[in-house]
Amino acid sequence: MSLTISPSLCRQRLSAGFASPRNLSLRAYPSRSSPAAPTRRDPFKGPSMAPASTSPTRMNASPTKEAPGRSAAKTPLASVGRVVVLGAGGGVGSAVVTQLAEQGVPVTAVVRDVSRAKDKLPSREGVQVSLGDVTDSASLTSLLQGAGAVIVATGPSSLKNPFGPYNVDYNGNVNVAKAAANAGLKKIVMVSSIGAEDWFFFLNLFWGILIWKRQGEKAIQSSGVDYTIIRPGGLTNEGSQRAPKGGVVAGPANTYGRAPRIKPTGSILRSQVAALAIEALTNPAASNVILEAVTQEGEPERTAAQVLEDLAAGKLPPRGEE
């Protein structure tokens, strides 16, 4: 099911204004070494990895230190319960499903076309592929019932539709926020985009897509459910010509973008964004936080836990070359 709206409704929604989110002055950058973590799969280095060393490594979960104003206790991932992944047919969403399945977490992978998505998603015990759409509030009510958390990795299927960003990025997240609150979920993780608060960012030429993403973020923030909003830079896959070099660095909202923000010089792997989203489910440093993440050449490889640890500690990413 999809919604159809008039251009006048778009203008009315946008001009009416939305509640201001909580301002969080959290900053990030490279951490000290973390305690060794048990051997498990690293989503960026193939099927297996050695235990974490004293030097930072790419995003395998590791214990975090207590950050100011946050509990040091990290909830075990298994205690979250079933995780619903919206947009599971996309690049980030399918990576989230794969990584959760590898860690033994029960997953409901929600897609708009089951037959097309099955080729992208793991066929294993604990993974249920379900038909659903964020623009259909009734389907969300059913899908989220009994779940512990939801990860939102949705986006318009085509930018040729001028109402796609409104319907999916704004109205869809309004539906998610309401359904998650009604279902009593413990956590919402939303994958958004760098530039969500910059009206003049070039991506807004596509029907104001980032403007509507920002309004969707506000709906998630006002849901009453603990949230993490991840704004990645340019997305890419391992093995592509655009595959990033260096480690993941992160900052609070509005860290990256047009001046005076830091110019984002690196892309980020979809698998890295997925690892951040999963870490955010249980890491107290990600509670009610917006973060922006890219990879930066020359910086050390780091774990998702280290990225969140440094975000809570207020460490600032380097500006690099402007």
Description:
27% of the residues lie in helices and 15% in strands. With 322 residues, it is α/β, with parallel strands linked by helices. The protein has helices at residues 7-16, 91-102, 114-117, 137-144, 164-183, 209-221, 270-280, 304-312, and strands spanning 83-86, 107-111, 127-131, 149-152, 187-191, 227-232, 235-236, 247-252, 268-269, 289-296. It is built from eight helices and ten strands. Helix 2 (91-102) crosses helix 7 (270-280), helix 4 (137-144) runs parallel beside helix 5 (164-183) and helix 5 (164-183) runs parallel beside helix 6. Helix 6 (209-221) links the parallel strand 5 and strand 6. The protein has an eight-stranded mixed sheet, with helices on both faces. A two-stranded parallel ribbon has the order 7-9.
Brief rundown of the structure:
Helices cover 27% and strands 15% of the residues. The protein is built from 8 helices and 10 strands. The strands form 2 sheets. The chain has an 8-stranded mixed beta sheet, with helices on both faces. A two-stranded parallel ribbon has the order 7-9.
Number of strand elements: 10
Task: Give the termini distance in whole angstroms.
Answer: 45 Å
Give the overall pLDDT as a whole number: 79
Question: Strand-residue fraction?
Answer: 5-15%
Spans where pLDDT lies below 50 across 5 or more residues: 1-5, 9-41, 43-71
Largest sheet: 8 strands, mixed
What structural class results from the helix and strand content?
A: alpha/beta
What is the spatial order of strands in the main beta sheet?
3-2-1-4-5-6-10-8
Question: Count of helices?
Answer: 8
**Helical content class:** 25-40%
Radius of gyration (CA) equals 18 Å
General form: globular
The helix-strand sequence is HEHEHEHEHEHEEEEHEH
